[in-house]
């Protein structure tokens, strides 16, 4: 009798267990998460929508905004700090839930970003930092990029290479985060190296023609130049063109978002190496940061964190079919 009751209890348990498995369990976190995101407003103020980085970020963010039901509003600064400041100021009066900003330099937006925070608006800075730290930074590890490039120049041009040790730097604008942090890293890495000489350090201002002119002049002044560190691949297409014109073997390292033109530049010999900070990965990190901040009950300015992009090295030795991305495919 006891055995029969035990079998009956076991059968009943299996029945109810199977029924519960068929019905499934409720994910108690899913709906509150969706509710926290739906209907929210996010404003994105890039330097300009005319080049690959913000275009790629925007394409990735738009997909997630559509999927989760929040609004992404793009306010193009169109290469003007004044226009960007007006866009940010207007956004602050509208009180969106979140602002994403790509700074021109470390100073121009600092006060405006603090005003946004004081108004209770959370702020993400993407790729180019301000001196004022907001809730989050998502972007390139500029110090790490500069440190890597300097060490590669030691390998390519230092005492063990048998070459001159002379290198040149072609920066972006002097106050841009990409310039100040990379320059610091390069200087620190090379400060005790008597075998490496920086013979020129000039600002190309993200301009391809200006970079080409600088490279042409430096190569003429230093016929034994060994290498150039450029600070952005779109600008350094001009640097690479000047090297090709000279017919000299000058090692060019640059960095960028990893668009397909970076891989093409390595393939055709314009660049020896591109340090990619991977716009696809940054887009994913941006989306995750947006979702964290929109769900967080903490007030603006309470969270201070950074998601630095892992560097991806693109060279003829490392390049694969997945090394670079295509904007047309990101938009699909």
Automatic annotation (TrEMBL):
It holds the Pfam family Peripla_BP_4. The keyword Cell wall biogenesis/degradation does not apply. Gene3D superfamilies: 3.40.50.2300. InterPro entries: Peripla_BP_I, SBP_2_dom. GO terms for molecular function: carbohydrate binding. Coiled coil: none annotated. The keyword Disulfide bond does not apply. Residues 50-295 form the Periplasmic binding protein domain. Residues 1-21 form the signal peptide. Belongs to the bacterial solute-binding protein 2 family. Keywords: Signal. It comes from Metarhizobium album. This is Sugar ABC transporter substrate-binding protein. One of its GO terms (cellular component) is cell envelope. It is found in: Cell envelope.
């Amino acid at each position: 009798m006891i055995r029969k009751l035990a079998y009956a209890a076991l059968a009943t348990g299996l029945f109810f267990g199977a029924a519960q498995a068929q019905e499934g369990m409720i994910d108690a976190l899913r709906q509150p998460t969706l509710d926290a995101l739906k209907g929210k407003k996010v404003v994105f103020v890039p330097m300009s929508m005319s080049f690959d980085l913000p275009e790629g970020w925007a394409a990735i963010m738009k997909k997630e905004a559509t999927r989760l039901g929040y609004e992404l509003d793009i306010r193009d600064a169109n290469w003007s700090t004044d226009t960007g400041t007006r866009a940010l100021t207007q956004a602050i009066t509208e009180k969106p839930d979140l602002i994403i900003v790509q700074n021109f330099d470390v100073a121009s937006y600092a006060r405006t970003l603090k005003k946004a925070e004081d108004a209770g608006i959370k702020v993400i800075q993407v790729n180019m930092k301000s001196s004022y730290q907001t809730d989050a930074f998502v972007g390139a590890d500029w110090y790490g990029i500069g440190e890597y490039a300097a060490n590669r120049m030691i390998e390519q041009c230092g005492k063990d290479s048998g070459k001159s040790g002379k290198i040149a730097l072609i920066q972006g604008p002097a106050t841009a985060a990409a310039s100040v942090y990379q320059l610091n890293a390069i200087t620190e890495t090379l400060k005790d190296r008597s075998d490496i000489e920086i013979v020129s350090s000039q600002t190309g201002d993200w301009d391809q023609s200006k970079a080409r002119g600088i490279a042409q002049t430096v190569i003429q002044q230093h016929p034994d130049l060994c290498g150039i560190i450029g600070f952005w691949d779109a600008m350094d297409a001009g640097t690479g063109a000047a090297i090709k014109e000279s017919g000299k073997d000058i090692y060019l390292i640059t960095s960028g978002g990893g668009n397909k033109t970076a891989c093409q530049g390595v393939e055709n010999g314009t660049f020896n190496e591109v340090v990619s900070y991977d716009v696809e990965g940054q887009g994913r990190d941006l989306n995750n940061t947006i979702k964290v901040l929109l769900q967080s009950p903490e007030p603006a300015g309470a969270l201070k964190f950074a998601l630095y992009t892992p560097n991806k090295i693109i060279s003829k030795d490392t390049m694969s079919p997945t090394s670079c991305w295509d904007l047309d495919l990101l938009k699909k």
